[in-house]
Amino acid sequence: MSENTPTPEPQRTSLPLVMEAPRGRAKPPRHLADLDEAGRKALLEESGLPGFRAKQLSHHYFARLTSDPAEMTDLPAAQREELAAALFPRLLTPVRTMEADKGTTRKTLWRLFDGALVESVLMRYPQRATICVSSQAGCGMACPFCATGQGGLQRNMSAAEIVDQVVDGARAMARGEVAGGPGRLSNVVFMGMGEPLANYKAVVAAVHRLTDPAPAGLGLSARNVTVSTVGLVPRILQLAEEGVPVTLALSLHAPDDELRNDIVPINTRYSVAETVDAAWEFARRTKRRVSVEYAMMRDVNDQAWRADLLADVLNARGDWGWVHVNLIPLNEVPGSRFTRSRDADTAEFVRRLEAKGISTTIRDTRGDDIDAACGQLAAAE
Length: 381
Fold this sequence. Notes:
12 helices, globular, TIM Barrel, alpha/beta, Methyltransferase_A, 10-stranded mixed β-sheet
């Protein structure tokens, strides 16, 4: 397109701000992790049980990482089952668990109470252990290169369904079920199935449960929690006001509206400029560096000139190190027209970004042999 060619107006789609799941579904059962401390106490009292036991139950779940009443020996034997039933309904049932990378990567396919399928991936590295969690069953963002997006949105997950994935990962680490012996879960990324900011209320509640100190929560550092989004601009700005210094990961994938309209359909509602402006505002308000996620797709978005354009777009908001670009080798979906970029093209993309002062890394790939891309295992099932 020449400089004198008028830029076509992007066609607006009917994508709403929050992609709602089909109505009429039963809600997940209420769980301890859905509630704050006062809510847990109130729920027990409504059930005719002693409210002061809520703190003990919270300690078992968030500190001891158990919801098994048989392990709660500090509770009256006659009340254990009833107390556990009130606050620990079963939320996740494992369908399949697959391992890769010599046992340091573990992917689990979960069945929710209503039969919906979601996935989480636990990844152990030398200095940290990270779990990637789902926030929705399916996804309504319809990005064509993403396995989850091809299946559409089934429903939002509850805060407790999100948290329970993390507690399971923390338990696996603590009990030495991941190669390398007992350890501690340190990081959580909301990069599994779904668009986290389209399930805003539950995701923010989950973040609080994860970062509140034990026994109110899991006690993780908010700086080790990353929330991703394809660019729901009002929700990015709302998250900046929450007062929880999480890391924002913006799945940009293209620096120009013409391409991004095609591969990230929400761009027809919120343009590249609007989306990057919101990310910059998040960084300004929170003093937290934003991560720009960029899945490298062969001959689609990996041209050298797009690297230059991406750097210019990001630098236009300021050069104070507010952003870091994370290039992602594409997890290829069988039958998709999108394939992984050539190594040489990725290397040139990095070179051009760094030449313009943009901090850049290439994400370490994990679990290629176990369909670790979000939605692949659920789709196969």
